[in-house]
UniProtKB/TrEMBL annotation:
Gene name of the record: fliQ
Domain of life (superkingdom): Bacteria
Its membrane topology: Multi-pass membrane protein
Primary site of residence: membrane
Cellular location(s): Cell membrane; Bacterial flagellum basal body
Membrane-crossing segments per the record: 20-41, 48-69
Organism field: Bosea thiooxidans
PANTHER family noted in UniProt: FLAGELLAR BIOSYNTHETIC PROTEIN FLIQ
Stated role: Role in flagellar biosynthesis.
Gene Ontology CC terms: bacterial-type flagellum basal body; plasma membrane
Family affiliation: Belongs to the FliQ/MopD/SpaQ family.
Protein's GO biological process: bacterial-type flagellum assembly; protein secretion
Protein name as it appears in the record: Flagellar biosynthetic protein FliQ
Keyword annotations from UniProtKB, A to Z: Bacterial flagellum, Cell membrane, Cell projection, Cilium, Flagellum, Membrane, Transmembrane, Transmembrane helix
Xref: InterPro entries: Bac_export_3, FliQ
């Protein structure tokens, strides 16, 4: 396997990682920001308050995006397996 092929597989893996993890991280960021804004406006300084809405939102997003995530990971595995089968 040449260095160019290794870089292609690594680049593809990073892109798939961002496709799979990006939406969940973005939703966690938005929910955390919204709860922090509510905390700042109401002056409630409870540190654990942000975790429950964030966990619920990420779990709901995981259920929503799971088919897309599975397709992205299966496609990546198919491309890697095809490279292995062809020898490079």
């Amino acid at each position: 396997m040449t260095s160019g092929a290794i870089l292609d597989v690594a680049r593809d893996g990073i892109v798939v990682f961002l496709k799979v993890g990006g939406p969940l991280m973005a939703i966690a960021l938005v929910v955390g920001l919204a709860v922090s804004l509510v905390q700042a406006l109401t002056q409630i300084q409870e540190q654990t308050l942000v975790f429950v809405p964030k966990i619920i939102a990420v779990f709901a997003a995981l259920l929503l995006f799971l088919p897309f995530m599975g397709d992205a990971l299966a496609g990546y595995m198919g491309r890697v397996a095809a490279r292995i089968a062809t020898g490079g």
